[in-house]
Amino acid sequence: MTVLAQAGAVAVAEVEVSAKAKRQRRSAKEKLRILGLADACTEVGELGAMLRREGIYSSSLSSWRRARDLGELNALEPKKRGPKPVVPDARDKEIAELKKAVAKAELRAKRAEGLVELQKKVSELLGIQLPKEGETP
Predict the structure, then answer these.
(1) Which range of residues forms the domain containing residue 111?
(2) Claim to verify: residue 73 and residue 39 sit in the same structural domain
(3) Which of 57, 65, 81, 102 is most deeply buried (CB count within 10 A of its CB)?
């Protein structure tokens, strides 16, 4: 940023700066094109000028050459960042569903037991005889 002082007035030149630099991602086709340009460079300083023009480092060029020489065209593709997605196993899904079903059944059984206890208490209060377990009404 430059500051200009003229007769007591201060003028500030605005500078455009991006908030965050973007990471360059090049396709395998683009990398092969750049490798072709680099291989065609024969004169002194020509390779350096090409690297500056394309905006890449010589280390990137050497890693791309290594991948190309090994025949790994897929290795030239940009890698997706972050953790690798985990494919869920079908058995894990089935186990989760069964656990959910068991929990639901246990909840229903607990409610049913509570209702039976409530019926017993109401019958005692009203003096009604309920049949014992194993007896038919």
Answers:
(1) 89-132
(2) yes
(3) 65
* pLDDT at residue 1, rounded to an integer: 46
Residue 101 has pLDDT above 60, yes or no: yes
At 6-21, the pLDDT tens digits run: 555 555 666 676 677 6
The encoded tokens of residue 7 equal 């007769």
Under 8 Å between Cβ of 67 and 79: no
Place of tokens 């014992």: 132
Q: Which residue has the tokens 């089935």?
A: 94
53/70 Cα distance (integer angstroms): 27
Q: Same structural domain for residues 68 and 101? A: no
131 CB-near residues (< 8 Å, 6+ apart): 137
Does residue 12 lie within any of the structural domains? no
0.90 cut: is pTM over it? no
Q: Is residue 83 part of a domain?
A: no
| One domain, residues 28 and 66 | yes
